[in-house]
Automatic annotation (TrEMBL):
Mitochondrial ornithine-citrulline antiporter. Catalyzes the exchange between cytosolic ornithine and mitochondrial citrulline plus an H(+), the proton compensates the positive charge of ornithine thus leading to an electroneutral transport. Plays a crucial role in the urea cycle, by connecting the cytosolic and the intramitochondrial reactions of the urea cycle. Lysine and arginine are also transported by the antiport mechanism. In addition, catalyzes an electroneutral exchange of ornithine or lysine for H(+), a reaction driven by the pH gradient across the inner membrane. It comes from the Eukaryota. It comes from Pteropus vampyrus. Belongs to the mitochondrial carrier (TC 2.A.29) family. The keyword Mitochondrion applies. Signal peptide: none annotated. PROSITE patterns: SOLCAR (PS50920). GO terms for molecular function: antiporter activity; L-ornithine transmembrane transporter activity. This is Mitochondrial ornithine transporter 1. The keyword Membrane applies. One of its GO terms (cellular component) is mitochondrial inner membrane. It is found in: Mitochondrion inner membrane. One of its GO terms (biological process) is mitochondrial L-ornithine transmembrane transport.
Length: 301
């Protein structure tokens, strides 16, 4: 950690951007399957069926629908998340009465990550809305919920602005916050506990890439197991509001429970769990290594 908070924030921001890029490049096809299965569970018998149908309908590019907003979403979210994580760690140190350079416990790091995620949700919600709508455009058109339209980022952005104005980009913000704040407690908690397990007495900073990737994967699985139904409701709100259907979190939850049962809230869980290791493993690997590299460059000067 540097003594200059502005430089530390810039390093965390840049490392977060690298982490977000790595996460999307490794995990996007799984994320697309997750969103399709969450919003149209009756169309797919399972993960393999969803993959095969997507390929036959729109080809290989179908797996990467929404990649550009996903990249923007993840870069923005992780830049803000890791920059605020650094600040929130200092807040936690102050609250518990620790020195500025003191190491936090795994639980304290989890709390700092949870606070930081509230700020990240504000930049994540608009870009994730565009991503989810692009990912499910084919299903929305073929089910007759919306008319055929241009399938581009810009056309989705224009349609949101036309229908709901700038605040339309924050459709699903309450469910995004409801997912992020508890979810990131488990995310950072799972990651830090796994690093402690692999370090077994050594410094966590000495861990190699395999241990970091496994720890990131465990963090990702902890997050999704804790908040998956909330994410499912959020995807429904963001996608189905395209057809003019405006329901809030409670309304959507009651409707899913009444019409489809509790298991519908877990549609798409398999690709999400499979995605956790490559995507979150790459995320933390990119974050830790780029952060270390920038810190050593700064200290050398």
């Amino acid at each position: 950690m540097t003594s200059n908070p502005a430089i530390q924030a810039a390093i965390d921001l840049t490392a977060g951007a690298a982490a977000g890029t790595a996460c999307v490049l490794t995990g996007q096809p799984f994320d697309t399957m997750k969103v399709k299965m969450q919003t149209f569970p009756s169309l797919y018998r399972g993960f393999t069926d969803c993959c095969l149908k997507t390929y036959s309908q729109v080809g290989f590019r179908g797996f990467y629908k929404g990649t550009s907003p996903a990249l923007i979403a993840n870069i923005a979210e992780n830049s803000v998340l890791f920059m605020c994580y650094g600040f929130c760690q200092q807040v936690v140190r102050k609250v518990v009465g620790l020195d500025k350079q003191a190491k936090l416990s795994d639980l304290q790091n989890a709390a700092a990550g949870s606070f930081a995620s509230a700020f990240a949700a504000l930049v994540l919600c608009p870009t994730e809305l565009v991503k989810c709508r692009l990912q499910t455009m084919y299903e929305m058109e073929t089910s007759g919920k919306i008319a055929k339209s241009q399938n581009t980022v810009w056309s989705v952005v224009k349609s949101i602005l036309r229908k709901d104005g700038p605040l339309g980009f924050y459709r699903g913000l309450s469910s995004t916050l409801l997912r992020e704040v508890p979810g990131y407690f488990f995310f950072f908690g799972g990651y830090e506990l796994s690093r402690s397990f692999f370090a077994s007495g050594r410094s966590k900073d000495e861990l190699g890439p395999v241990s970091l990737m496994l720890s990131g994967g465990v963090g990702g699985i902890c997050l999704w197991l804790a908040v998956y139904p909330v994410d499912c409701i959020k995807s429904r709100i963001q996608v189905l509001s395209m057809s003019g259907k405006q329901t809030g979190f409670i309304g959507t939850f009651i409707s899913v429970m009444k019409n489809e049962g509790i298991m519908a809230l877990y549609s798409g869980l398999k690709p999400t769990i499979i995605r956790a290791f490559p995507a979150n493993g790459s995320l933390f690997l990119a974050y830790e290594y780029s952060r270390k590299l920038m810190m050593s460059q700064f200290e050398a000067h």
